[in-house]
Amino acid sequence: MQVIKTHPKSSHRKPFQGLASMVPALVMGALTAWAVAITPVHAQTAQGAEPQQAKRPAKPKAQPAQAKAPQRKKNAAPKKQSSRPARQAAVTGMPLASTAQTQAWVQDAAQRLQLDPIWVQNTLAQAQRLPSVERLVLPPSSPTAKNWAAYRARFIEPLRIQAGVRFWQNNRSALERAEREYGVPASVIVGIIGVETLYGQNTGNFRILDALATLAFHFPSAHPRAAARQAFFQSELEQFLLLTSRSGADPLNIRGSYAGAMGLPQFMPSSWAKFAVDFDGDGRIDLFGSPTDAIGSVANYFKAYDWRPGMPTHYPVTLTPGQTNMDSLLAPDILPTFSVASFVGQGAALSGAALQHPGPLALIELLNGPDAPSYVAGTENFYAITRYSWSGYYAMAVIDLAEALARDMQRKP
Length: 413
What we know:
This protein is mainly alpha-helical. It has helices at about 20, 40-45, 100-115, 115-125, 130-135, 150-155, 160-170, 170-180, 185-195, 210-215, 225-245, 270-275, 290-305, 325-330, 340-345, 380-385, 390-410; strands spanning about 95, 130, 205, 255, 315, 320, 350, 360-370, 370-380.
C-alpha cells in the first residue's frame, strides 16, 4: 500500500519556519480533461488544453488543510488493505540525464524549499525519462469529434454503478459525515472517485517521480503551451519532493497517473498538500489506502472552491433556433455569467425552479458528433465540479453517475 504520511520530521530538510510562506500551493483547477479519449480521466487533466475562453479559477478562499504528524500507538493495527488487483511492474524508460538545467533546478528548488540539495540530487538521479509520457501529453494528431453520448457511456454503465453502490455502502458513515461537515452531497463525492479511478481500481502505474521529472525537464516542445506546462510540472515535482521528504516516504515507490496524479481521488502533489485531510483521524493522510481520507479530501476540495450546499448543479434549458443568441450565450464557455433575466433575455427558455435561481448561469454545450448537441444551464456548483477537471463533459459525467448511484441507493434497504 502506498502511503504518504505528511508532516513528520525528516533529515532531508533544513530547518525553516512557515512552509506556507515559501511554497505557493498550486491547485488542480488549472488542469483539463479531453472530452473523448482513451486514457484515465484525471491523467488527461494535466494536458492543459483549456476550454474556449474559460477563465482560470480564482484562488480558493479556504486555507490549506493541515495534515497531522503520525500518532500511531504501539501495536496499533495497520490500515485495512484495499482489495485492488495485484500490482504490476511500473512503466519504465531511460535514465534522466543530468544536465546544467537539472543541476540548476536542484540547487534552486532545494534552497527555496529548504531541502537538502544532496538528497534532491540523489533522488532525481534515480528518475527515469519516460517517452510514453511525453507522447501522452501531446494533443492527438487527428482529434476525434467530441461526442457526449460516447463519453457518457464510458462512465454511466452497469459495472461502474455496481462498484459505486458498493463503495457507498461500505463507506456510508464517512460520506454522511463529509456531507454534514463540508456540505458536499455524498453522491457527488462517490461520482468523482468513480470517474477518476473506478473506486481505486485504476490509480495508475507510472512512478510519480518519473512522470513528473519527465514533464518537468522534457515536456514536448510540440505542445502549444509547452513553456507554461513545463513550469507547472516543475512546480508539481517540487511539491512531490517536499511531500515525500516531510513524510519519509520513498519517492521511488509511489505510483499514479502519467501526469503525476495520485490515489483514489487522483490528487496532484500540490492539491495533496493543500486539500488532503486526515478524515479517519489516525494521524496520517493516506489517499491510496484510506477511502475515508479520500472522501474527506474530495469534499474539502469542493468546499474550498465554493461549493454551495443545496444548490442544483444544472437546469434543463430549451433553445429555439433563430430566437436564441447562441454566440452571446456560449462566449463565456463554462463560466457562470448570466443572471436568470439576462439568460432568458438571450432566448434560452427556463422553467420551474430555474426561474428562481439566485446566482449566475452558463449555457453548457455538449456536442454529440453528427447529432444535435445537448444543452443545460449550469450553475456555480456545475462550475465547481469543473474545477476538479476543466471540462463540461467531465462535470456532466460526474453528475450523471452521481444521480444514477443515488437512484440505486434509494432502492437499497
